[in-house]
Amino acid sequence: MSEATVVVEAPLPSGALYTAEASLEMGRDTYAVPGSPNQETSRGCNRLIRDTPTLVLDDVDGFVMMRTGMLPPDREVWLRRLFEGEAVEKIARSRGISTVELLGEIAVMEAYGRVVRLPGQRYVPGGGGPSPRPASFE
Questions:
Q1: What is the third-level CATH fold of 65-125?
Q2: How far is CA 107 from CA 67, 135, 136, in A?
Q3: pTM above 0.70, yes or no
Q4: What are the residues facing 32 on neighbouring strands?
């Protein structure tokens, strides 16, 4: 088994929950991403957070930084290019993804306060800020 287990989505019941329980029993770090209490695929994660000593993971970049001490190299490079004013379309093409996919990644980083959108399709680094959290768990 790995050093840590991360559960992103898990309906009730699911194999992901069995893996998380095994990880907890072995004393491994176990993380769960909270989700909407109205989504079937979030119920397992929310129950893990509520009922076990699972660590809440609501900031993927923060998790990567905690485990490795740095941002994923790919993200660091394309963010620098974005902040230097390179066109979103060009960055997406160079990464082999669609512009829509890249804009989705940027939107998530905006929600977490890591990126601030300026007029004219320009972006600057954000200061972080609180991570969005669901209002309540199941």
A1: Arc Repressor Mutant, subunit A (1.10.10)
A2: 24, 20, 23
A3: no
A4: 7, 56
